[in-house]
UniProtKB/TrEMBL annotation:
Keywords of this entry: Hydrolase, Metal-binding
Name of the featured protein: Fumarylacetoacetate hydrolase family protein
One Pfam family linked to the record: FAA_hydrolase
GO MF term list: hydrolase activity
InterPro entries tied to this protein: Fumarylacetoacetase-like_C, Fumarylacetoacetase_C_sf
Length: 220
């Protein structure tokens, strides 16, 4: 496991990463833009740790499998075990916050959905989860009032606020813990605001989490 998978604030080792739990359609406008129904409860799927790559390093996209779409997300690092947890316990278990891209082979995902098949091939490929360095949890005063922004080649592509989540962060963690244990080193991606679209070779990306975190990266 590389050091890039393990640090908080760029320097403090915490936990090797485990699984990445993702939440689908947690922003209503994103569900609408893909012509998906707005869910009545969180949609969960999991990326393996092998999908994680450092966000600040150039992004490598799969070749010959169709368009790869960006999905900007607030990422949550788990620091204590959660099983059948309530929201207060979930809050106390958060070790850090960061930014992630849930990279998606959109055409392949659409084909899998049409057949009623799982999404793993479209969501879990190597490099499908670029993650930023972590902010310590205490650096975030209000997790439900954070601005997320993704700019590509100087143009704002995704912009949203965590206040728009259908299910808030602590409730998401508690909900997920009803079905499987969240362990130290696990990461939860909390959904993407509207504006998803394809990445191209040479794209220059700038990502921000309020005034707390800024990351610049590029597509190979």
């Amino acid at each position: 496991m590389s050091h890039a998978h393990r640090y908080v604030d760029g320097e403090t080792l915490l936990h090797p990463l485990g699984k990445v739990v993702c939440i689908g359609r947690n922003y209503a406008e994103h569900a609408k833009e893909l012509n998906n129904p707005i869910p009545t409860e969180p949609i969960l799927f999991i990326k393996p740790s092998t999908s994680v790559t450092p966000l600040q390093e150039p992004l490598s996209l799969p070749q010959g499998l169709g368009e790869v779409h960006h999905e900007l997300e607030l990422a949550v690092l788990i620091g204590a075990p959660l099983r059948q947890a309530d929201e207060a316990t979930a809050k106390q278990a958060i070790a850090g916050y960061g930014l992630a891209l849930d990279l998606t082979l959109r055409e392949l995902q659409s084909k899998l959905k049409e057949k009623g098949q799982p999404w793993e091939k479209a969501k879990c490929f190597d490099g499908a989860c670029p993650l930023s360095p972590w902010l310590r949890a205490e650096a975030v005063a209000d997790v439900q009032n954070l601005n997320l922004s993704l700019t590509i080649n100087g143009e704002v592509r995704q912009q949203g606020n965590t206040a728009d989540m259908l299910t808030p962060v602590y409730a998401l963690l508690a909900y997920a813990s009803r079905f499987f244990t969240l362990e130290p080193g696990d990461v939860v991606l909390t959904g993407t605001p509207a504006g998803v679209g394809p990445l191209r070779s040479g794209d220059q990306l700038s990502l921000s989490l309020d005034s707390l975190l800024h990351i610049a990266t590029q597509v190979k």
